[in-house]
């Protein structure tokens, strides 16, 4: 882990995905699902360790934006950037979640002094510890286009080259995940 406030490395951007979501638990859940679909399309397949880690990073950052960065009537934005070196078989994926509340800057909570299983009061507040443990780098920056902040995390993941047409799309209650965007 390397928490820093430095910008992303200056490597070529392989792919990019940006979408705004309602600042609700449903918005955070939808962000995780749509980012998971995008990662799969970039060659980070469902069920792989890289996909699971990146989905968890999106989930934790989006949940923090909803829980701690919520301003009534304002959305949060998720931005995925995949950086790769030419002919590389891996990507560095940068997850950025931007909210509109700049007065509450994120800091990881201290590690619990007691066994978390023994203390039922410790049911939340550990999201950034998860981010810190999983991400290669993470940090925060002021929101570039107004009030608020962007919290980001980077993770390097191996990609899988495959024939996309031969892979069935996952479905949710009879609708494809792709169909949820429209």
Any overview of this molecule?
With 182 residues, the chain is an alpha+beta fold. Helices cover 25% and strands 26% of the residues. It is built from 3 helices and 7 strands. The protein has helices at 25-41, 49-68, 127-134; strands spanning 13-21, 76-83, 90-99, 137-142, 149-158, 171-172, 175-176. It has a 5-stranded antiparallel sheet with strand order 1-2-3-5-4, with helices on one face. It has a two-stranded antiparallel ribbon with strand order 6-7. A hairpin with a 6-residue loop joins strand 4 and strand 5. Helix 1 runs antiparallel to helix 2 and helix 2 runs antiparallel to helix 3 (127-134). The longest helix is centred in the first third of the chain and has 20 residues, at 49-68. The radius of gyration is 17 Å and the shape is globular. Mean pLDDT is 79; it is low at 118-122 and 163-182.
